[in-house]
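tokens incoming
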């Protein structure tokens, strides 16, 4: 009998995953991962707590499977939270959930499971795995979940073949409503539990307060850029550029200086803001809501524009440095000079966007069919062929 260790979070998805695996004849064990203790900046009632452990225990008891808790908080702080702070400090916006899966759930947790003689680890992610043979070698395909409203494949875009080899996703073929139905039919304690929100294992946070654990407040100017800023019109005039020059040009964020606009307010630290942010700016008296266009952590300036369709929010290309490219399918790695038509997602829940991927010596350029709103350095771009993620990378610009 194959042994599977399930990451039991106390949520309905991992609970049903454990139930399904037991029904399939696996020797199922449950582990609750304790990854965070500090509640500074965490909004009351939104963080993992003793209640989650209790629910996970009740589920394990109902399913009659062994259960234990394991504390990975030291590794989580080092690999995920410290990375977050470092990225925000330089004005980038990281995705801790992607890092959490790569560094904790399918690394530290996987290592622990293998120490306990497990054959596989399982989670409640809405995604699928398929194993194929190509040229005599096995490859594991990471596929979107059947429930397109809950598909979480994006969060796993940094997994390797070794990690996927040991992974099982029991609910990837199911709709969320069916998962809820099974939990209720089996009287699992998590059946009516709300889905978790916020940072993986930390919870929903007041981000500035959370970041102030490491990053100091520092007053600076908020400068408003008008919709007719000269650089926007120049961006449309690329007739004299070669194709590669156009790739580079279009992947460059718009560049602003203090005298390009007008000061409209002050902020408490540019590193507390992110591209496309609307709330928390404290800017009034505008006809339309303001949005963050750019942040400069060196000069401590936040640049904003008025309205969600402000031209400064849109670009049609991005760049991933060669050192930040990860291939889930290494057999599909692009050589320098090659290109690929694909679908791309630059944030969770975003609809897949048609694009062409170009590999150059310095890295990867992604050119979209339609301009993208809020391309943000530090976030991940996931590259799909049909419903399979083949590669991903940290957006450099």
């Amino acid at each position: 009998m194959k042994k599977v260790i399930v990451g039991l979070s106390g949520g309905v998805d991992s609970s049903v995953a454990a139930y399904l695996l037991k029904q399939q004849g696996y020797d199922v064990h449950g582990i609750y991962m304790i990854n965070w203790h500090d509640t500074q900046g965490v909004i009351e009632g939104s963080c993992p707590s003793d209640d989650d452990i209790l629910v996970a225990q009740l589920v394990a008891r109902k399913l009659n499977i062994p259960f234990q808790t394991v504390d990975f908080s030291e590794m989580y702080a080092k690999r995920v939270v410290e990375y977050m702070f470092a990225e925000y400090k330089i004005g980038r916006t990281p995705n801790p959930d992607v890092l959490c899966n790569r560094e904790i759930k399918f690394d530290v947790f996987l290592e622990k499971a293998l120490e306990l003689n497990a054959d596989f680890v399982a989670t409640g992610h809405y995604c699928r795995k398929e194993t194929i043979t190509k040229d005599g070698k096995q490859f594991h395909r990471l596929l979107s979940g059947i429930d397109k409203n809950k598909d979480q494949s994006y969060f796993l875009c940094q997994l390797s073949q070794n990690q996927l080899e040991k992974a099982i996703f029991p609910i990837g073929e199911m709709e969320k409503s069916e998962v809820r139905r099974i939990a209720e039919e089996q009287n699992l304690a998590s059946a009516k539990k709300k889905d978790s929100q916020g940072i993986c294992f930390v919870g929903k946070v007041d981000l500035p307060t959370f970041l102030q654990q490491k990053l100091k407040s520092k007053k600076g100017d908020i400068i408003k850029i008008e919709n007719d800023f000269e650089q926007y019109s120049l961006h449309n005039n690329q007739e004299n550029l070669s194709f590669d020059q156009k790739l580079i040009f279009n992947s460059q964020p718009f560049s602003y200086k203090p005298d390009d606009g007008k000061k409209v307010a002050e902020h408490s630290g540019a590193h507390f803001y992110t591209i496309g942010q609307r709330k928390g700016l404290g800017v009034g008296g505008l006809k339309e809501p303001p949005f963050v266009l750019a942040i400069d952590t060196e000069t401590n300036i936040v640049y904003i524009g008025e309205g969600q369709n402000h031209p400064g929010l849109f670009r049609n290309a991005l760049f991933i440095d060669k050192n930040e490219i990860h291939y889930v399918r290494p057999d599909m790695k692009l050589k320098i000079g090659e290109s690929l038509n694909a679908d791309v997602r630059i944030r969770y829940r975003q609809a897949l966007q048609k694009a062409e991927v170009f590999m150059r010596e310095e890295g990867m350029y992604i050119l979209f069919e339609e301009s993208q709103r809020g391309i943000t350095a530090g976030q991940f771009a996931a590259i799909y062929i049909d419903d399979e993620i083949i590669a991903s990378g940290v957006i450099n610009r």
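note: The first helix runs from residue 12 to 23.
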